[in-house]
Sequence to fold (325 residues):
Amino acid sequence: MTNPWKGISPGKSKLISEKILNHDFYWYVEDRNNNPCLLFKIKNQNTPLPQRNKLPPISYIKFHMITQDYRYLCVELMDKTYIDLFGEFCNLLTKTSLEIEDESTALNVFIKKAWRWQSLLSKTKEKKLSEEKQKGLLGELYFLENFLFPIFNKKISVQNWYGPTGASKDFEFSKFQVEIKSKRSGSEPTIKISSSNQLEILKDSRLFLCIFGIDKSESEESSNLHDWCEKISEQIFNSDFTEILNDFNEKLNKVGYHEEQDYSEDNWDIKEITYYEVKKEFPKLVSSEIPPAIANVNYSIYMNQLKPFQIEKEDLIDFLNDSNS
Fold:
């Protein structure tokens, strides 16, 4: 893209568009170091300014407030070698807010979008996740939102989400662990176990297994992966732990999810969820019981053999509540 700051004198600004818009954005050149900036003009005196912990800590980019004739949120590039990517980043930020009438809402959307900087600035062009990986991630996001967020705070919940990191369990707490499996509802009643550590019960803790039946859907109630990630991002952003958004986004990136990937045609419904507690008698192959000469264990379990270990959703929720007391 052409350099939008070319010809702008230090300390001066230029309106991005002459069209009638809901909000005013300016290209601006900072007057001390001649750094390129983007300004979000805050016209309404009643619009609350963002708290410091709501502003994302992005390498080479500084978010701060400045006051001239009006108050402005300033997005300043601290390293001019990234000016091309910064220009694209600024254009993306402004597009997210232009059509939102309420200024306070638009400002929040602008800031929340900035928290997704890893994928936006790295310009990742990886292919979108396969359907199997989408379903797997959806199961983990569902558990995060519907089981952990209501009981533990957002920070603890995200910090103990280990599925994207390649750990043996998807969620690991000191008193319990949870492994998530996703499949097509009504499909062959087997679940795949990918390692000898996945169903290993740790000392002085309990292990739960949640099996999600997830299908593609065209119903209005269905959602795609992008919808899920945006919904949870917003919940974290609006909590007291906005800083954990960085950790959440990094984990999404480790899975292979990036915001610019197109998931609009892949809508999903969670049809069923079955809950189990993995006990000593649970059918499994675990590292503590396998000869050390055997490696790379993976196998499948028939779900119709797991009835004795099935528990109700309420039993799991009661345990989670007790573990947080």
